[in-house]
Design a protein that fits this description.
The protein is mainly alpha-helical. It has five helices and no strands. Mean pLDDT is about 80; it is low at about 160-170.
Length: about 170
């Protein structure tokens, strides 16, 4: 009798824990969706501002900075979409956002206007991020037992997608 009541109590607490975790995940997804909507609105505003700035005399540095900023927002949007689809953060997308952000700052300030210490720091940072991308691909190849391109099903119906997946380790459907 005691064992049955203990098991029943255990089942009830397990059900409550699963319900709480599920509700927290739903709330977290709501936050991520709100961030996606906000990022999309910011992208549209920055795109409109960029087109308005094209009417004035061209400043290559500002236009390039705006384009790179919009690309950073697109990558962040993609990172959030991957999170919603797979409930994980894509390391590759996060590293790509960091790479583009660092390059944007260098372009914004101008390579000739940056102190040598800061430039060396950016070079080391970019080297580390590039190394992370290489390690990620190396780990994927070594821990999956060798991937054959013939065995991969294309994510969106084309062979290029499966080729990218084989060498990048990313498996999302867009």
């Amino acid at each position: 009798m005691r064992i049955e009541s203990f098991l029943e109590t255990l089942r009830k607490s397990w059900f409550r824990r699963n319900t709480i975790v599920h509700n927290l995940e739903v709330f977290q997804n709501f936050i991520v969706i709100s961030l996606c909507i906000g990022l999309f609105c910011v992208m549209l505003i920055r795109l409109a501002q960029m087109y308005v700035s094209l009417l004035k005399p061209l400043n290559f540095q500002i236009i390039t900075s705006d384009i790179l900023f919009i690309l950073i927002l697109v990558e962040l949007f993609r990172l959030l979409i991957i999170y919603l689809q797979q409930q994980r953060i894509s390391i590759g997308a996060a590293v790509e956002v960091s790479l583009v952000s660092a390059l944007r700052e260098v372009i914004l300030q101008g390579v000739l206007n940056i102190s040598i210490d800061r430039l060396l720091g950016v070079c080391v940072f970019l080297s580390v991020l590039g190394g992370l991308l290489l390690v990620r691909v190396w780990m994927f190849r070594n821990f999956t037992g060798g991937v054959s391109l013939n065995n991969l099903a294309p994510a969106n119906g084309n062979a290029e997608s499966s080729h990218y997946q084989a060498f990048s380790g990313e498996h999302y459907s867009f």
